[in-house]
């Protein structure tokens, strides 16, 4: 089968090969024919080494498709069923799951160290234990979440990561208050979803911050009340909040420099939500006096900060009701053979989300 493979960490191009096999099928597993997958910035971060991932590997974790084979012991899933791929399934038994913090379950991460593909030259890993830049993938049954027939594969794929992450950051993690002021730094697919979440929660001012003009223009269509470049953020803070700072600031880039800017843009007693996934050696510096004196809440948000199955259902319900726009998040579409074009679109910022059609 065909798949897009990164041979070594640090390479900026994927090679589309036709000699890849999905392996590991057996009890507790399902085989999925991938129909659509989104390109998420985390895929690029794994390629360049910001996020740890063994290589060679197949990127992709935001996918949807049809089950083609069901292993022994799997219940609730059948051949032909339409599913989205959950890259962080909850085991239901660990301390995090028992506390109701299923997004912090580590069981899914254990899969990342086990190859689930192979080529004639050896084993190939799937990013985050999945790897959806391929025609089919074998995953734990918990990674296959059934979707209703009226949800297209491309929409389901987005719900599998970017939409759930962004919406959840605003709704679950921050619990944005009605009438509040919000700034979102980084307006790709996740940032735009955070904007939509803040709008749903009733924020009065939502300022989108991004260096790319097309993304700022798009943010206004999704609910931002104003869109500025990073150089204009200080002025927006002064104009909108009289210099006090925003009630909520979302950092959706994953870099200490933008997190520091986000902290300084948050009012005293306000909330900074860290959504972007950054590098282990990129340290955010805060002095102990400001940490105490400002009383700003710093809330990291992992996969939307809530139970992902509940978040999926909520996103589908909101989409059906016309309360969130998911179709317009997909600004580009490419076939798997042109996956490197999708990477270029992400790196230049020309795309909110590129859908890879398989």
Outline:
The chain has helices at residues 41-47, 95-98, 107-110, 153-159, 162-173, 189-200, 213-221, 233-241, 256-265, 288-294, 308-320, 339-348; strands at 3-5, 15-17, 21-22, 29-38, 57-58, 62-70, 82-85, 117-119, 122-126, 136-140, 144-146, 181-185, 205-209, 226-228, 246-251, 266-274, 297-300, 330-335, 353-357. It is an alpha/beta fold and 358 residues long. Strands 4, 6, 7, 10, 11, 18 and 19 form a 7-stranded mixed sheet that branches. It has a 6-stranded parallel sheet with strand order 14-13-12-15-16-17, with helices on both faces. A 4-stranded mixed sheet has the order 3-8-9-5, with no helix packed on it.
Describe the secondary structure blueprint for this structure:
Layout: E1 3-5, E2 15-17, E3 21-22, E4 29-38, H1 41-47, E5 57-58, E6 62-70, E7 82-85, H2 95-98, H3 107-110, E8 117-119, E9 122-126, E10 136-140, E11 144-146, H4 153-159, H5 162-173, E12 181-185, H6 189-200, E13 205-209, H7 213-221, E14 226-228, H8 233-241, E15 246-251, H9 256-265, E16 266-274, H10 288-294, E17 297-300, H11 308-320, E18 330-335, H12 339-348, E19 353-357
Parallel strand pairs: 5-9, 12-13, 12-15, 13-14, 15-16, 16-17, 18-19
Antiparallel strand pairs: 1-2, 3-8, 4-6, 4-10, 4-19, 6-7, 7-11, 8-9
Helix pairs in contact: 5-6, 5-11
